[in-house]
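pasting for ref
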Amino acid sequence: MANEKAFPFHASAKWIWSDTPVTKDAYSEFYTEFDLDEPKATMKISVDSNYTLFINGVFVESGQYPDFPHYKVYDEIDISRYCHAGKNKLAIVVWYYGHENMSYYAIQPSLLFEVTSEGRLCAASGEDVLSRKSRAYVGEVCKLITVQLGYSFRYDCTAEDNWKEGELDGFAKSRVLDQDLPLYKRPIKKLVLKEKHASTVVKEEDGFYLYDLGEETVGYLSFRVKSECKQKLEIAFGEHIIDGKVRQRINGRDFSVEVTVGEGVTAYTNYFRRLGLRYLEIHSQEPLSVEELTVIPCDYPLTELPVAFEDSLVQRVYDTSVRTLILCMHEHYEDCPWREQALYAMDSRNQIICGYYAFGEYAFPRSCLYLMSKDNRSDGLLSICFPTTANLAIPSFSLHYFTEVYEYTKYSKDLTLIQEIMPKLESIMAVFLARRENGLVQNFIEKQHWNFYEWVDGLTGTTPAEKAVREDAMMNCLCSLALSYLGEMCEMLGLERDYSAIAKEINRAIRAKFYDAERGIYRMAVDDDREFELVNALAVLCGAARGEEADRICQMLADNRFIKTSLSMICFKYDALLKIDKARYAEVILDDINSKYKKMLDEGATAFWETEKGASDFSNAGSLCHGWSAMPVYYYHLLAQKKEG
């Protein structure tokens, strides 16, 4: 991942912006022309915050890779098939968010690009590139869809002109910026656009039009309508409907965009905002004829590894789990495509390990793990998501990061990642070890910390964190596991460290503090006697519980004697059972998976839900497509019977 060149662009390429005031939620348009001797050309481009690229009036690409100012990513695109010999017209729309969300780190509105052909520079960003404030995209609206997703958009089709074809009303020279950022080539492939998804009419009446795409889908909004007048359309999107309508507004969230259409036929596609949905709904001011309402699916290019299982239910669950993974893979793994599209260290661990079996691909997970390593908080922990400037961290998620990095190294046999990020791993661990008192890591009480462990009452934590310092079993079990993995990674690199020894010390302290010998279980804290599945599973996994003690705990786990774990963390229960006796507990795990996931399929799931409650969870904001719920992929490969041939 090391940057091959300090500035991998031609020296004449400069960061630019239009000569307009800097505001949040702003759109600028850039135009230039270039000559080719033959239709063969490559373009490099990087922006803050997002871009759509057109050549000779045809859409080419969109989608800036989420990055940091100290890890600024550029795309390198073969644009040959959009070009011709002679003069070519290059048009770029840049959307500057300016407002940080859970997948965006704001710098300043900026654009850098160059076009080359056979080593010859044909065009580059500079003051001679013409630009203006967009007339069709309505800026400075600052309407949030969700805190995690960021802004919605507002577009006026009637304000669009032919600027992409060179009719340049209102354009002026661009402003060169004083900006010098380290640049890195996009580490993964660009998304692939597919044919428009089929959709069917659910309901049409004056001013209300509801369409069903038939399954969970991720893509760019595209429609064609006929109107007798100019009017504004509010277009809502969602995964579920209630009372015959899309759940558009949920506790301050607003899953909608606005597009103004003119008299006659209007066709429109938005390549900026990726939508996760099943349903689309138009609210119009006047009667409307909807000729098409759908999305253009956009997927990360993958090859699914074929696998056939003997059990038809297992096959259905497996196939739906793989589809769930795919729907949650774009620039990085994301928790859910509808509500957040955010990269979490914990969620991505579940997704990444499933991806090894489903796709046998390592570049994508490596890029996610590397992006996380570029996070740079003052407290030394990892942020809640990546990239973000949000001053919030879930300490336990920093510990899950060790698990996924270790697993990547084990599966890929690639040592280069841990070679590059070992200083980051050790600095994170130092934060936890500095909090040890009497052998145990104390919890976090600062306002920027959320001591979250799991979506189960008693384990969700609070924000800001608890007022009083204490030790709990969860934090220490996770820290012990992370220390063990860090120790093994150091051994792989030939580094002499004592992390595994510290893990054993913490295990002894965990048992002394949290083990209830009378009940034969581990409690969450000395003042919390509740019997959690997750706490006891982790006690087994980290080695605090051993021998007959671990055997008894696993039997209680199998008998469902504890407070149950949700879909997000049930993998730790399964892993504890497998650690102690794979042959004994294989059927227990398979039966549990089949029961939980069959219920979702029977209720019409086309991707797997965030929790077993589905849409009703989280005050009716439960996602029906969530990456962490793809875990059957992993366990079926380990445990289920496959067909021969």
